[in-house]
Amino acid sequence: MLAMIHEQNKDPQMTELLIGGVQIGTPQAKQQWVDDFLASRPQNTSMNTFRYYQTCLYPAVGIDLTPKGINDWLTNVTKGNAKLSYYRAIKAFCNWLYKSKKIVKNPIDFVDKPKTAKRILPAITQEQLVTLIKNVTTLRDACLLRFLFDSGCRLSEVSGVEAKDFHYDTGLVTVIGKGNKQRRAPFTIATGEMLQEWFAEHDTFELSNEGISSFLDRLESNTGITCNAHCFRRGFAIHQFKQGVSTRNVQLMGGWESITMVERYTQQLSQDDAFKHYDRG
Predict the structure, then answer these.
(1) What 3-state class would DSSP assign to 24?
(2) Reduced to 3 states, what is the DSSP secondary structure of residue 3?
(3) Domains of the chain, residue spans
(4) Residues 92, 46, 115, 65: is their CA dihedral positive or negative?
(5) How far apart are CA 246 and CA 188, in angstroms?
(6) Which of 69, 4, 62 is nearest to 29 (CA)?
(7) Residues 6+ apart with CB under 8 A from 257
(8) How far is CA 276 from CA 159, 231, 269, in A?
(9) The domain defined by 126-275 carries CATH number 1.10.10.10
(10) Distance between CA atoms of 243 and 179, rounded to whole angstroms?
(11) Are 66 and 107 a contacting pair, CB within 8 Å?
(12) Which residues in the chain belong to E strands, given as ranges?
């Protein structure tokens, strides 16, 4: 039996043919589908998430939406562990296409999750922080470095923070985190004193995401220390572990949605670090 399959509302974009229940014809990723997928995201989706989907999915326009087509496309991603990010994006896209009845079968069900290299990622240490601060000349830049290390805040959280968000009596700052969710992050007394001095005359750090990234790139070139925002975030987590803070509390302070990512950072602690927290009674 030959049948043209349409959505219940007779969407003409559904063009797969079935003969005896077997799909004939190969659906391809259309730019309109990607645009529709982006438009369907929840209202509280952050701009960073939109950019992530755009970066991953627009290069997929035109590929065959079959297990082989997706695997071939992922094979051509040459950015190391970024392959997993592309897989997650195409998985969300295919799931949406299937639920929207734009495709008859979901090809992602037959695509294995890419394996990632288990490598130790760079994390800023207290000693490196001292070196970095010695290589800046302005109060604003010193504040930025200390705040990044103290709080573990994401890049967008730092660029968006305002003077009114700081609560110096409690050592907490209110930021807009991932998914446009409001959360609080900590900072030390010493950093708070520097922040008060800066924000007494300024409302923000006066740098965009790109501005902060460029500043850190220049600092990395000058010092040889890898110091992007993620390095500070990992450094925050590892420093807290070394102070004896539990994984769960580190997760809450850093605003990680999943404890799995935080647990990955504990693998960078040495056995000597672990013994420091052993209670000999």
Answers:
(1) strand
(2) strand
(3) 2-110, 126-275
(4) positive
(5) 18
(6) 62
(7) 178
(8) 36, 24, 11
(9) no
(10) 29
(11) yes
(12) 2-4, 17-19, 22-24, 166-167, 172-176, 182-186
> If you search the block for the tokens 């562990």, which residue do you land on?
81
- pTM strictly above 0.90: no
| pLDDT tens by residue, the chain, 281 residues | 333 333 334 444 444 454 443 344 689 999 999 999 999 999 888 888 899 999 999 999 999 999 999 999 999 887 656 888 999 999 999 999 999 999 989 999 999 998 876 666 789 999 999 999 999 999 999 999 999 999 999 999 999 999 999 999 999 999 998 878 899 999 999 999 999 999 999 999 999 999 999 999 999 999 999 999 999 999 999 999 888 899 999 999 999 988 888 888 777 766 566 667 655 55
Reference 91, options 106, 102, 80, 81; nearest CA is 106
- Nearest 5°: the CA angle 179, 182, 184 is 125
**CATH value of 2-110 in 1.10.150.130, 3.10.310.40, 3.40.50.2000, 2.70.98.40:** 1.10.150.130
Instruction: Please say whether the beta carbons of 212 and 158 come within 8 A.
Output: yes
Six token digits for residue 5? 């399959």
Residue indicated by tokens 């495709």:
103
DSSP characters over 108-127: GGGSPPPP----PPP---HH
Q: Are 197 and 138 a contacting pair, CB within 8 Å? A: no
9, 18, 33, 39, 199 from 14: Cα distances, Å: 11, 12, 11, 19, 56
